[in-house]
From TrEMBL:
Protein name: NR LBD domain-containing protein
Domain of life: Eukaryota
Organism (species): Steinernema carpocapsae (Entomopathogenic nematode)
């Protein structure tokens, strides 16, 4: 992502790694919503975190995923400790489907919208330390690129409300990122690193049925 971003791609590796670290959480939430919006063959009542990889928007499914089904925490049954995280996660996924995903689906699916959001994510996550001129310099230049994006939108006849919609989506993504981090911290307490190991296995997600994908 950063290597292809104007201005940022020219920076040295250490600088880019710092930017990536600051932007990572917000960017991951954004990409999940983008994958869900662009999924062509969809299983009903599902949320796609990657192409053809989805969660059923069903409480029991989410509960089983978060608990690892047979995980023993030493703190009691999973029904006591995973119910609230499951509710939080389901609320997050449903909210994402109802708010951010529809916006990403409308219009012509322009890559310029995606580029504008990535610039917003980088600026929001890294535009601090105002006294450090070396840190601020690339972001000042990136803000000029933002103005060029604005000029492009006007040239294409995009309504001014498009900017408001982008900013509103950015606000939604920020709020969702806070909730995802909160949920992740809870799950780290309950399961340590076992949830991340589970995510890395192909059986971890409720994968879409291949027959469904090919038939649709």
């Amino acid at each position: 992502m950063l290597d292809m971003t104007p201005i940022i791609g020219e920076l040295d590796k250490t600088f880019k790694e710092a930017i990536f670290k600051n932007s990572f959480q917000l960017y991951i939430v954004f990409t999940h919503h983008l994958f869900n919006a662009r999924q062509k063959h969809r299983r009903p009542n599902s949320y796609y975190v990657y192409p053809n990889v989805c969660y059923d928007l069903n409480f029991n499914t989410i509960l089983r995923f978060l608990s690892g089904e047979n995980v023993q925490t030493g703190l009691g049954s999973f029904s006591d400790h995973y119910v609230n995280p499951a509710k939080m996660f389901l609320t997050h996924l449903v909210g994402a489907s109802q708010h951010s995903t529809p916006f990403l689906e409308i219009g012509d699916g322009s890559e310029m919208d995606t580029a504008a959001l990535i610039i917003l994510i980088i600026l929001h996550s890294n535009d601090f330390n105002k006294q450090n001129q070396n840190w601020q310099e690339p972001f000042s230049r990136l803000k000029k690129v933002w103005k060029e994006v604005d000029a492009y939108f006007k040239f294409k006849g995009r309504e001014e409300s498009s900017w408001g919609e982008l900013i509103l989506l950015m606000s939604e993504l920020q709020s969702m990122t806070v909730r995802v981090v909160e949920l992740f911290n809870i799950m780290q307490f309950l399961r340590g690193d076992t949830l991340m190991k589970q995510v890395e296995t192909k059986e971890s997600f409720d994968k879409c049925n291949v027959d469904f994908v090919t038939k649709n």
